[in-house]
Specification:
The chain is of the alpha/beta class. 47% of the residues lie in helices and 17% in strands. It has one domain: 3-Layer(aba) Sandwich (Glutaredoxin), CATH 3.40.30.10. The chain contains six helices and six strands, in the order H-E-H-E-H-E-H-E-H-E-E-H. The chain has a six-stranded mixed β-sheet. GO terms for molecular function: antioxidant activity; oxidoreductase activity.
Length: 167
């Protein structure tokens, strides 16, 4: 084998391994798709741990703007449990949602809510919720607050969490 063929073989091997690696990164994270009955238990806890559940979608500009704020809070408070509930379409998980999460370096737990009976499950979550997103629930076993708005910055989110648990 001459050196040119050898180098070409090595190059092709590297390209193949890179493609496999990228594919593994993208598919390593799976997004479960739930109906409301399957998500509802995730909205409650019997512990003192602070939970943040954020309902969002890629097509919602305020939601996308808010994600780095939640991500930063989670990074600074590793004892807090974050759940991002995507309202996107299940058929777009592989083609759009996973690449979006990879691009934004979102490592929080993500699930997708796919339940057409929104009028019923929205009221079960909070009868005052209009259904607009982003919508965030901050809770532990003793306290629970609902936020039908985007957090402006990290300090805004921290203040809401402090107000929830220090009052």
């Amino acid at each position: 084998m001459n050196i040119r063929k050898f180098m070409l073989s090595i190059t092709m091997l590297c390209i193949t391994l890179s493609c496999v690696s990228l594919s593994a990164q993208t598919t390593a994270k799976t997004i479960p798709v739930y109906n409301f009955d399957e998500i509802e238990p995730l909205l409650y806890t019997d512990s003192d741990t602070i939970h943040i559940v954020n309902f969002w979608a890629m097509w919602c500009a305020p939601c996308v703007k808010e994600l780095p704020i939640i991500k930063d809070y989670e990074a600074q408070h590793p004892n807090v449990k974050v759940l991002l509930v995507s309202m996107d379409f299940p058929e777009n998980i592989t083609s759009e949602l996973l690449p979006f999460l990879n691009e934004k370096k979102i490592t929080s737990k993500v699930v997708m809510l796919d339940d057409p009976d929104a009028n019923t499950w929205i009221d079960k979550i909070d009868p005052n919720w209009s259904g607009a997103i982003p919508f965030t629930i901050i809770f532990n076993k003793n306290k629970r607050t609902f936020h039908e708005r985007a957090f402006k910055n990290l300090e805004d989110l921290e203040q809401e969490i402090n107000n929830t648990f220090n009052n």
